[in-house]
Structures are given as C-alpha cells and as structure tokens.
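Go through this fold for my students:
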Amino acid sequence: MVGKKISILTSLLLSVSILGGCSKTPAVSSDKSANKEKIIKIGISQVTEHPALDAARNGFIEALKSKGFEDGKNIKIDYQNAQGEIATAQTIAQNFVSQKEDLILAIATPSAQAAYNATKDIPILITAVTDPIKAGLTKSLDKPDTNVTGTSDDVSIEKQLELLKKLLPNSKKMGVIYNSSESNSEIQLENIKKAVPNFNLELVSVGVNNVNEITQALNSILDKIDVLYIPTDNLVVSAMPLISNTCFKKNIPIIGSEEGQVASGALATNGIDYFKLGFQTGLMAVEILNGKKVSQIPITTLSELSMVINIDAAKKLNINIPEDISNKAKKITGGVN
C-alpha cells in the first residue's frame, strides 16, 4: 500500500513538473519578443518642395540620426509631399493616423493644420510655421496645451529691413508678393506693414492665389518699387527662379527671408537657417521618443540669424556690398542667368 502511494505521488510530481515546463515555454517566447527592438514609425508631411522646407526636413532627419534613430534601422520614415495642395495635405495626415504612426513631423503651416485636424493623440512636431497660435495649433508657446510642439520660423522683419537699408540706402518703395490664401503669409504681411514706416519705406503689396498669377503680379508691381521682399511664403518661394529672372530684367534687387531664396537669385537675407531649424525640431522629437510629454517641450525658434549675400546677384545689379556686411556675411553664388 505504501509502495502504491509512493508510486502515485511520484506520478503526480512528474505531471506537475511536465505541466510547469509547458507553462514556461510561452513566457520565454514572450521575453524574446519583448527584447526585439520596436521599429518607430514617423510620418513626415511637407506642404511643397522648395530649398527651405527640404533643408528643414533634412535637418530633422540628421538630428534623429545623431541621437541613434536611423531610418531603416530602428525607425521607419514615411515622407509625403502635398505638392502645394491643401486637400492632399489633409489626405496625407489622415493616412498617417490610419497607419498608426508613432510621431508626425508637419513642415509648414498647411501641413501642420492638416495634421492637427486629423489627430489629437499622435504627437505632432511642427517646423517652418510662422505663428502656431494664430494657426490654431496651440494656445501657448511655452507650455503647449495640445499634442503639438516644435519650431517656428518667425523672422525678425526689422533685421531684414536693417540689412535692406544698409545695402540699398536710397530705396523708398518696397514690394511684397504673398499668398493671400495662406495664414502664414497674411501674418507676415501684417508685421511688414507695422515695420516699414520705421525705415522710411512705402509698402506696395500684391496677393496671389496660385503660381500662375505670379507673372501678372510681378508685371503690376515692378515698375512701382525699388526693391522686392520675399517672405517665407511657400507658394511664392516655389517660383523663385521666375521671380529672380524677372527682377533682374528690371534691375530690381530682392531681399529674401532665408538662404534658399538667396541661392535662387535674391541679393541677400538676414534670416533663418532652415537646416538648423529642422535639426532643433529633430532634437525635440528625440525627447518625445524618450518619453517626454509634448506639454513639457516649448515651441521655439532660432535665436541666431544667418546673414547671406549672393555675390553673383550683387555683380549683376552693380551693387557694392559694404565692408562691414561683407566681413560677417556668408557669401554664395548662383541663381543668376
């Protein structure tokens, strides 16, 4: 009887041991799965293609890479360009939500607004947005109250006008062409209107709704002005080769709002370096990917401006660059036919 009890007990212990072994197998498999590094999905929506926005995108990607987040390794970047179409920007944003992207980078105001309208849950990084508050993306720059943070490309128009007057002291009338359908451009125009009287300049502005209207706008304005200022306007900037060539024919210098415009034929700028702006945004993305809350990351801009002179444009227009500006400005060529 004792022997029988021992035999039964041994059988029970063996069964428990076998069952215990079976229950541990999924746990081991689960641990291996947990150890696999998650591929982070990042959607990038850019409203259109031009050098400034491309530079911002490249800076963002470079910042991620500098902190160990590399496309094709531990992150997957889905880059989409709306080619200037608002409806396309909205579709891109909706697709990012459907694809359950972990983070969205929205480049320029229309893409930022489309992304914010599409999701209030996925963290959104913005860049090249002039006024995030007026764009309806947040109520505070210091403590964002939505799922949006990032960088603004708000340019000091006063610094641009100071440079304009040093290079072109006799200028009296300044022209501006802007997209009357984009809030970013309307905001800049209002800032320009407030600033020009302090520099003894008269403003002549004309709005356009699409690229096809730019030639007509130029023809209506160039005989009335001494200098043309180009804001950070996505529609207008996309036509810079046309604008610069037309201005050269009329001997009208252009002051740009960033380096890409100068590379395309503008005389000079004292503005934003968009690669650096994008890089700064990328570092914010790293903070979010490492667990920081959007509300803990203020929306910022670059504290440093970049002065750039186009030597070819200066020669073409027969403009002498003052020595103090020449000594501190970055000098580039190009954009002159």
In short: Confidence is low (pLDDT under 50) at residues 1-35. The two ends are 108 Å apart (CA to CA). The chain has two domains: 40-154+273-301, 157-271+305-332.
